[in-house]
Amino acid sequence: MTPTSLPHTTRRQNSPIEAQPFPSPAPPYEANDPANVKLEYLSLTVTKLIRDEYANLFAHICSIHNQNVAIITALSKLNPTLAVRSWLNRDDVIAYHSGEAFAVSTCEPIKPDIVHWNHKYGDSCWTDVPVEYNNKTYFAPLGTYELQYNSTKIPCDQIPVNVYRQADGTWTSPIGHANVMQIDRALTQLNFDTLPTFSSASIYQPQWTRLVVSTS
């Protein structure tokens, strides 16, 4: 019986892969390297610009804040409610003087049943706008949505022209359509989509970017 021959391998005749050795690594930090100098200059320049802009912005904000404090302080002596509403940025509160402080209360919002924009209610005409709610009659002074219990009767030929906005967003008055210019108070946001282009030379050495592998 002939023994089974063991498998054997043959060496491929292809030439081995030859690669250029990597150069010796550079020191971890070189202060005089051109790339480091450029990056440090860029960092210092950007930092200075940011600090200067922050200082200007902070001074401007402080000036506006001090002006607002002075205006609200003066307004509080004439109308505490308007002063507190301006300071709190809320229109659903009322306030009155209480010694050296203000007593503040929250208003209750309602949905009126009928609003008489023509200032007529019953057989009389009124200085303020009559409002019916929950079987009671209130009056809203012009330019506000606050309700009060009393108003002054006036001759019907002296009714002021009252312009108001309807549910569909249009403006109207007792004599017809009203042209109202609305001022947009939204801030304009700058667009920074355009990116800067850097034209500095490559910071990498050519030998680090080439790896030659040859086979035959």
- Assembly annotation: single chain
Number of strands: 13
Radius of gyration: 40 Å
Distance between the termini: 45 Å
Describe the main β-sheet briefly.
3 strands, antiparallel
Structural class: alpha+beta
Low-confidence stretches: 1-9, 211-216
* Proportion of residues in helical segments: 25-40%
Number of helices, counting only DSSP H or I runs of 4 residues or more: 2
Strand order of the largest sheet: 4-7-8
Strand content: 15-25%
Look at the structure and give the mean pLDDT: 79
Organism: Bursaphelenchus xylophilus
Region (Disordered): 1-30
Protein name: SCP domain-containing protein
Biased composition (Polar residues): 1-17
How would you explain this protein's 3D organization?
Residues 1-30 are annotated as: Disordered. It comes from Bursaphelenchus xylophilus. Mean pLDDT is 79; it is low at 1-9 and 211-216. The two termini are 45 Å apart. The protein is an alpha+beta fold and 216 residues long. The strands form 5 sheets. The protein has a 3-stranded antiparallel sheet with strand order 4-7-8, with no helix packed on it. Strands 5-6-9 form a 3-stranded antiparallel sheet, with no helix packed on it. Strands 10-11-12 form a 3-stranded antiparallel sheet, with no helix packed on it. A hairpin with a 2-residue loop joins β7 (129-133) and β8 (136-140). α1 packs antiparallel against α2. The chain is 25% helix and 19% strand. The chain contains 2 helices and 13 strands; from the N terminus they run βααββββββββββββ. It has helices at residues 34-78, 80-88; strands at 18-19, 93-98, 101-106, 114-115, 120-121, 124-126, 129-133, 136-140, 153-154, 164-165, 171-173, 176-177, 213-214. Among the domains are: 35-108, no CATH class; 110-180, no CATH class.
